[in-house]
Amino acid sequence: MMTPALLSVALLLLLLLPGVPSADPTLYPIRVVVENSVNNSPNKTYSTSVVYRGILLGGLTRLQKSNKGFRFTYTQDPNYGPFLQSVNGLAGSQQKRTYWELLVKPANNQTFRPDVGIGCYIPNPNDLIILNYAKY
């Protein structure tokens, strides 16, 4: 049986281990820009945050809960995970050959397309996340 002091030390170590979420995680700022390259609508920029090593889906969910002007939906693909379906009421369409493209512009200003989606991409602090409505 553990003594109270030993138990306290064990709990403290558990909280400090990398990869173990803490009760009060540190939040890192990111910005989300919603673009529409199909209709050339004005861009909308939002600020949100992600926890350390947290996924973009968490940041988008946090944004949706804190800002009534931002809404998104996604579907869960059994092979590829969360798939962004709509942003602010505008959905991608197979008939119109449109989709939501995920782009990232980090601090070095070199925009890239991640090889993972919103359920796996881990933003860095101050990343600019671009959700672009595009044609294929």
Automatic annotation (TrEMBL):
Residues 67-134 form the Transcobalamin-like C-terminal domain. Residues 1-22 form the signal peptide. Pfam families: DUF4430. GO terms for cellular component: extracellular space. GO terms for biological process: cobalamin transport. Keywords: Signal. GO terms for molecular function: cobalamin binding. PANTHER family: TRANSCOBALAMIN II, TRANSCOBALAMIN-1/GASTRIC INTRINSIC FACTOR. This is Transcobalamin-like C-terminal domain-containing protein. It comes from Sander lucioperca.
